[in-house]
Amino acid sequence: MFEIRPVWSKPSQEMESPVAKATYVKTQGMWKVYWMRADLKWHGYAPAPKVQTVDAFSRPGGARQTCVFFRVAEDAVEQG
Questions:
Q1: Which of 54, 52, 36, 56 shows the shortest CA–CA distance to 44?
Q2: Strands 2-6 and 14-18, bridge-based pairing
Q3: pTM here?
């Protein structure tokens, strides 16, 4: 999962920044969820460190409270 936004010095160009990823652990039949912090390293996503499905990865529990996955805009649309 990544964010697409304009390049600061060249707004006509876009850049992609990684935000989250999930890796499948075959022995457990689960997906491990990670997010990239400001230190540019992948960290386990504490509210939902493991999920059963890829769909659950795209909407992990707790994302609305922490806004780690940029849910704020979607919440505003749902309420608006």
A1: 36
A2: antiparallel
A3: 0.66
